[in-house]
Amino acid sequence: xxxxxxxxxxxxxxxxxxxxxxxxxxxxxxxxxxxxxxxxxxxxxxxxxxxxxxxxxxxxxxxxxxx
Length: 67
Prior knowledge:
Layout (H helix, E strand, L loop, with lengths): L1 H14 L4 H5 L14 H20 L9
């Protein structure tokens, strides 16, 4: 039973590409960092941060041609 649960969770984390190491290495008792204990919430926030970083890297405002 426990091995089935472990296999299910590992497949689930692998399927959604869960950032396991960043989740485990969160600073727990830090005043400046809000620790996220819920794995689903952490995964959601991780995706949002990733998309924001990609957007900032790829975004280039349109340049007006000089007359």
